[in-house]
Amino acid sequence: MEIELKNISYFRDGKYILKNVYFKFEKNGIYTVVGPSGAGKSTMLKLINRLIEPTEGAIFINGVEYKNIDVILLRRKIGMVFQRPFLFEGTVKENIELGPSLRGEKNIDALFYLEAVGLSKDYLFKDVNNLSGGEAQRVSIARALANSPEVLLLDEPTSSLDPTSTSIIEELIKRLNREGIMVILVTHNMEQAKRIGDYTLFLYKGELIEARKTWEFFENPISEVSKLFLEGKLKEMIE
Amino acid sequence: MSTSSLIFASSLVLVAIFISYYQKLGIEKEIIIGTARAVLQLMIVGYILHYIFSASNAFFTLAMVAIMILVAGHNASKRGKEIPGIFYYVTFSIAVSAAVTLSLLVLFGNIKFEPQQVIPVSGMIIGNSMVASGLSVSRLKDEIKNRQEEIEAYLALGATSRQAAQKVIKMSIKTGMMPTVDSMKTLGIVQLPGMMTGLILGGVDPITAVKYQIMVTFMLASTVAISCFTVTFLTYRTFFTKQHQLRQAF
Lengths: 239, 250
Ligand SMILES: Nc1ncnc2c1ncn2[C@@H]1O[C@H](COP(=O)(O)OP(=O)(O)O)[C@@H](O)[C@H]1O
Ligand SMILES: [Mg+2]
What we know:
The structure holds 2 protein chains of 2 kinds.
Chain A: E1 3-12, E2 15-25, E3 30-34, H1 41-48, E4 56-61, E5 64-65, H2 71-77, E6 78-81, H3 92-102, H4 110-116, H5 133-145, E7 151-155, H6 163-178, E8 182-186, H7 190-196, E9 199-204, E10 207-213, H8 214-219, H9 224-230
Parallel strand pairs in A: 3-8, 3-9, 6-7, 7-8
Antiparallel strand pairs in A: 1-2, 1-4, 4-5, 9-10
Helix pairs in contact in A: 3-4, 3-5, 4-5
Chain B: H1 3-9, H2 11-22, H3 28-55, H4 58-76, H5 86-107, H6 115-146, H7 148-156, H8 161-186, H9 194-201, H10 206-236
The structure holds adenosine-5'-diphosphate (ADP) and magnesium ion.
Organism (chain B): Caldanaerobacter subterraneus
Membrane topology (chain B): Multi-pass membrane protein
Subcellular location (chain B): Membrane
């Protein structure tokens, strides 16, 4: 799938949260999105999932303006996973089946998606309240996968997880990508962005400062702001 | 009851004022204003009702009911001031619940279509409907605000607005109905409802009073159910766009 952000802005409460962002996600890779908090990273994902509308510019999916695509279909094809897993009361199985069942599908192979995120079938009938943070996040990824998405948007999925769970999820992301799912991962963990990204986008104050191959961005950032950010000196710049 | 004994009874309000003063609650002024308003409003209503009852005119009766609905709608819509069109949603919901419940009562022969019966019964229906729909609206507003992320997680999975709001809709309807359902459970034990008390004080046989009270209980159950259901379904939509997005303005 190809996603083109054509000069999108998002203006709210008298300020630009995203400003004139142009980018084309075109290769099937892992895109990592970095930037200080408040830079507009989550807003960008929400725009791609059409949870909000850009105030300027437009988004094209495979060359079609997304206003011409059924929004429910779009959200199925472009799945989104949030920082907090937000599992709904009930069992793991019920959660995985949720997406397809919303449109009346039956006979969903929940076990298939559960195994896809590396959890055994013992989890199927577990109450979601009895899952660890890492398990819950994996179930929320399985839930998104059950919609058979072509793209996964992940908003800091490991930010509240321990190192073990984090690396399990990173492996999972890499494997899903190898199996053909484009991944756009927002993370505040630079090591993670470097480890698993093919391309990296750096957002600062709503602007896309740099978007390049991950290793190039980390080895040899072009803009001054990027350099400061990577040296951890950008905080002083935030008023 | 003589008017003079009523005046003596007004000293009961002094007790409330004294407690407020003694405990520095700072609500003496509000108690006085509240009392004065209640007396004034009731007196005016007394004379209006006196006139309408003696005129016994269907138009006056319905006009009176309509005014009650408008005032109730105005009052209940304060619970959701930020919501565009809330006055219309609330007023419509109260009107629907009143129309359905009243029509059924008249149809079943529980009450006659005459002002002496229609107006007090409408008052009870509309009053309960007002409180219940106000509760529903305020719960709906709060839950949508507090569960914004959860609702968006639902939407992101391809849920429609309606599916994403389902849980909140349920809570909101339930919240509006619960006080009525709860009070049904203890009716007659913990409290003797106003209507029954009034009838018994007025000299009506308790058995007759109870019959009316049972009717009132049935009618309030239907009233709050209809008004909470209607207002919730009308209102939840305003929180979403046509593109199944949660509006950011709230
Ligand atoms: N619904 C909203 N209303 C007002 N401000 C918002 C809203 N959503 C985000 N913002 C503001 O937009 C900026 C970017 O937010 P966000 O996209 O969440 O940043 P990031 O994910 O990079 O931390 C922040 O300053 C935030 O306060
Ligand atoms: Mg964020």
